[in-house]
Amino acid sequence: MTSRKRLLTVLQRGIPDHVPVAPDTSNMIPARMTGKPFWQLYLYQDPPIWKTYIDCVKYFGFDSLMDGYVPIEFDDLPLWPVDGSRPVIVYKDEDRIVTQNVRQAGGKDFWADWVNVYYRADPPTWGVDPGMIRLPKIPDSFEELEGVRTWPTGGELLSLVKREMGDCGLVGVFCGTSKLLNTEADIYDYYDDPDKFIERRDYLLDHYEKKFHRLMSLPDKPDFLCVGGSGTLIHQTPEMFRELALPIVKRITALAEAAGVPTHVHSCGPQKELVKIMAEETCLTVIDPLEIPPMGNCDLAELKKEYGNKLVLKGNLHTTEVMLHGTPEDVAEAAKRAIDAAAAGGGFILSTGDQCGRDTPDENLFAMIEVARTYGRYSV
Question: What is the pTM of this model?
Answer without folding.
Answer: 0.95
